[in-house]
Amino acid sequence: MTIRALIFDFGGVLMRTVNPLPRREMEQRLGLPSGGASEAVFGSPRWDDVQLGHISSTEFWADVGQRLGLDAESLAEFRQTFWAGDRLDEELVAFIRHLRSEGYRTALLSNAPDDLPQLVEQMHITNAFDVVVISGCEGLVKPDPAIYELTLERLGVPVEETVFADDARVNVAAARQVGLHATRFRGLSPLRKWLRDMGVPVPNPILAPLPDVRAVIFDWGGVMESLPDETHIVEWERRLALEPGTLLEVLWGEVWHQLSVGAITIDDYVQNIAGRLGFPNAETAGRFLEEFYTSDRFNPEVVAAARALRSRYKIALLTNATPGQDSRIREQFGLDVYAEFDAYVNSAHVGLRKPDPAVFHLTLDQLGITPQQAIFLDDMLYNVDSARKLGIHTVQFVDPAMSLAELEALLGHPV
Question: Measured between alpha carbons, how far is 79 from 69 in angstroms, rounded to an integer?
């Protein structure tokens, strides 16, 4: 199999919200609930219409303003603030340009209003792509197979020789049905690894040792302890006869967010799972959780690295977790987080969770350092984006071998 073309999504891939504070502050000013701004836009009954090109962006935003009771000046401020925390991933764009210079065909495929091509042109990234396909210009949206087929036709490359990256699972699943080699975008580091596995000769990033690093901050779930992978999740969804994506929302959606800031108890969380998954009682839900999480997922190499680094740096554990995580880690892995780390920041203990900038500042304060003096390892892209926005050096964790090698390069010595 030879890969000759690559297709990328825009929102959530090339352009991402890295700073949630502008939207959050705007919600408070307008008296909207948390997430209310995003719901007003992406949950609008006219969102599908503007993505299909049935109405213009101007008409769409006028409708949003009317629903929120905003005058013209307030609506203009709302639009500006809504996108204020979004940033273009320049490193990813440079990566795509490199692939194109090496002879690969590249395409941008996005569900977006018909004014996105003008924005792409203003950002000077059109030279990264051979083909740009925008739903609002075509009257087709992902996951409709027709829009993938249209993109392939314009690329002039067979489906079996093309890969596709998108942050939405439904779009990835539809692409696979068409025959594309598709992956859910979780960041450039995981993408590099996946493309290498697909036979694409991807260069390693050039990393230079950082001056003045005084601390290394580790995540727990996804770094020191691997999380269940997509295959495991899909298998459980089949066993429980759930629609794709349901289990993710049940386990790690809004109720998990409440648990991870200490707003509800573990008993509340388990009871919610029982009700949503149709278990007869909380005891059955508890047994399911034990079985779901039972596997050898501990990464001893990462813990060993943290221990070795502690002779030269301050070491912290910053984790979105349950109130009893410290006890579970001690019982399951024999680790005392208070003895092993100079700072242990559990979201459920402090009432703040990543990617909230406040929890990073809290961790830095406990370590007595500035953002530029820290390296942060986390598997989740939005946490890495948020930390990087604050000036913290980051490693998006993919696996121990790849990510510890990157950490070594940034430190300038073996760990």
Answer: 14
pLDDT tens per residue, range 8-54: 999 999 999 998 889 999 999 999 998 999 999 999 999 999 999 99
| Contact in structure between 125 and 95 (CB atoms under 8 Å) | no
Do residues 54 and 76 share a domain? yes
Quote the DSSP letter at residue 298: B
pLDDT of residue 294 exceeding 80, the answer is: no
Q: Would you say residue 202 lies in a domain?
A: no
Q: Which two tokens stand for residue 214?
A: 């005084």
Q: Which of 246, 274, 292 is the last residue of a domain?
A: 292
Tell me, yes or no, whether 91 and 118 share the same domain.
yes
Do residues 362 and 268 share a domain?
no
Beta bridge partners of 377: 218, 395
Q: Structural domain of residue 274, as residue ranges?
A: 230-292
Boundary residue ending a domain (39, 54, 84): 84
CA distance readout (Å), 67 to 60, 87, 232: 11, 27, 42
Residue 166 contacts residue 107 (beta carbons within 8 Å): no
User: Is residue 207 a part of any domain in this protein?
Assistant: no
Q: 374 with 217: CB under 8 angstroms? A: yes
Cα-to-chain-centroid distance, residue 286:
28
Taken as a whole, the chain contains a residue count of: 415
Query: Are 42 and 190 in a shared domain?
Result: no
Output the CA–CA distances (angstroms, integers) from residue 35 to 26, 40, 255, 279, 381, in the order listed: 10, 9, 14, 29, 19
Coil, helix or strand for 53?
coil
Query: Do residues 265 and 403 share a domain?
Result: no
HEC per residue, 191-248? HHHHHHHCCCCCCCCCCCCCCCCCEEEECCECCCECCCCHHHHHHHHHHCCCCCCHHH
Structural domain total, the chain? 4
Q: Could you tell me the pTM of the whole model?
A: 0.92
